[in-house]
Amino acid sequence: MNAQTVTARRDVYGIVVPSGEPVTIPQGSEVRLTQTLGTSLTVLYDGRLVRVAGEDADAFGLDPYAPSPIPTEGDLRERILEVLRQIYDPEIPVNIVDLGLIYRLDIEENEDGARVEIDMTLTAPGCSLGPVLSEEVKQRVEQIPEVKEATVNVVFDPPWTSDRLSETARLELGLL
Question: Is 170 left (phi over 0), alpha (psi -120 to 50) or beta?
């Protein structure tokens, strides 16, 4: 996406990246759209990056957007990964799977529904968006009909490095 400057049409809530500090962008404020991928968008406001939920895109003159429909057919592991590929890092235009933030995905299936446990990391240990991203991961995975419960652990061992980028991510970022 080419970054463009737009004016907020209404007050809108966001989260400053990477501090995690809540912020309200007042109606009439100029922002620069820097990313509109997946389930959220990122704007530059008052010199700071701010992550805004996709359903609030109308505040910037865009159609509100919601996550893609939950896949209902096929291998459960693949459907979980498909859902996670809809969640993007707010600073890097790559989804969290291809970015290499998902370290472990365990599925325990039984008659009352699957229990899913995920270990994920962040690109930097000081990023305060861990709770925001991990909660979004949990909510999206739990929307899959067969999943009864999802647990998401944010871990930093081993530390994330760019070696974890998928080939797709390397292509998107121009690293290949």
Answer: alpha
Q: Are strands 22-25 and 12-17 parallel, antiparallel or unpaired?
A: antiparallel
Q: Which SS3 state, helix, strand or coil, does residue 167 take? A: helix
Query: Amino acid letter at 131?
Result: P
pLDDT in tens, the chain (176 residues): 567 999 999 999 999 988 889 999 999 999 999 988 888 899 999 999 999 998 999 999 998 877 777 878 889 999 999 999 999 988 888 999 999 999 999 999 999 999 999 999 998 887 888 888 999 999 999 999 999 999 999 999 999 999 999 999 999 888 87
Residue 161 CB partners (closer than 8 Å, separation 6+): none
Q: Quote the CA–CA distance of 12 and 155 in Å, as a whole number.
A: 31
- The CB density around residue 16, as the number of other CB atoms within 10 Å, is 18
Looking up tokens 């995690």 gives 20
CA distance 157 to 152: 15
Backbone angles phi, psi at 60, to 5 degrees: -115, 20
